[in-house]
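Comment thread on ticket #2218

A.B. wrote:
> Attaching the input chain for the structure job we discussed in standup.
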Amino acid sequence: MSDMWVDPDDDPRTYGNPQGEKATLREYLDNYRLTLEMKCGGLDAEQLARRSVPPSTLSLLGLIRHLAQVENHWFQRALQGRTDRPRLFIRDEDKGFDFNGAVADPAVVEEAFVAWKAEIAAANEWLDALDEGDLGQEVSFGDGTVSVRDVLVHVVEEYARHAGHADLLRECIDGRTGQ
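C.D. wrote:
> Ran it. Output below, let me know if you need it in another format.
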């Protein structure tokens, strides 16, 4: 098998038959998180921070920072109402800091992955405690409300969209293609 593909026995993603809506949403979310992690695997700081096509600031490292911010925003701030918590990788003077600040520095890489993993752990802890029947629960958001289900679907969509970006970014770095 080509080293551009993960051996199926080593693929951490699951493709089962989850029982229930919450389990289905959780499996998709977990698999997209793992896909992004796999796309970043084995790369150094320069490769992770490499931009796609000018003038875009898109990079794998930027995606990690962006998705840490997404996890924080939706699971902590929106779903749990923790608006007093600091926002990740956003600056008043630079709304695109998640991507603009993704520079080829090992400390920046470490900070991004630690933050992303911490936000995933916090989100998973909250999801583990969520009852299936709570998916339709409405939470305050902006000038209205949004259901827990809608937020979960949105986060899955956000990861799916960016997993496609990650496929192209990784292919430009070393030829590794999507799987």
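A.B. wrote:
> Thanks. Noting for the ticket: The first helix runs from residue 21 to 40.
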